Every structure is written in structure tokens, then in C-alpha cells.
């Protein structure tokens, strides 16, 4: 009979341990969900400001492309936006020029 009592106590202890682990898992889930809410709230309320593209950014990319042997392509790109030189390029076209310059030499 003592073996049965011991086995019964062991089963009871295992059940209690399982319940404890389930409570622990629930607490971790709550903790994670509250962290996700805190992390996502600032992102939703304030979009990241887009970095303003400067002339120096465009100059660096185009100079690299020209140095790599794509001088004619760089000149054609500037001409497509109505500029004979980089200093004559309208700042509103900086983003588009950078995007198109990324494709130069990547054929």
C-alpha cells in the first residue's frame, strides 16, 4: 500500500508542477503581448521622417558611377531631368535621379 501512496503523491506533484508551468507560460505570454503593444504604439503614432536627400548624396553616387566608367550614362541621366550638370539639377529630382542611378551598371 505504501507504494500506491507514494505513486499517488508523485502523480499529484507532477500535476501541480504541470499547473505551475502552465501558469508560467501564461505570464510569459502576457508579458510578451504587453511588450509588443508598447513597441508598436510609438511606431503607429509617429511615422519616421524621411531623410531629405542632399546634393552631396547625389554627387557621391553619381561620381562613383562616373568613376566606374559610366560617365556617359550619368550625363544622359542628368540631361533627362533637364540639367546640363549636377549643380543645375533641381532638388525635387534628387530622389528620382538617385533611384535611376542605382540601376546604372547593374544590367
UniProtKB/TrEMBL annotation:
It comes from the Bacteria. This is Phage protein. It comes from Streptococcus suis.
Amino acid at each position: 500500500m505504501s507504494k500506491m501512496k507514494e505513486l499517488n503523491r508523485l502523480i499529484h506533484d507532477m500535476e501541480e508542477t504541470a499547473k505551475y508551468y502552465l501558469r508560467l507560460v501564461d505570464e510569459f505570454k502576457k508579458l510578451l503581448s504587453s511588450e509588443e503593444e508598447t513597441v508598436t504604439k510609438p511606431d503607429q503614432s509617429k511615422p519616421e521622417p524621411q531623410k531629405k536627400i542632399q546634393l552631396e548624396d547625389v554627387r557621391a553616387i553619381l561620381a562613383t558611377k562616373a568613376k566606374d566608367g559610366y560617365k556617359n550614362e550619368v550625363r544622359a541621366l542628368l540631361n533627362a531631368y533637364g540639367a546640363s550638370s549636377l549643380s543645375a539639377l533641381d532638388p525635387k529630382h534628387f530622389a528620382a535621379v538617385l533611384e535611376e542611378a542605382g540601376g546604372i551598371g547593374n544590367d
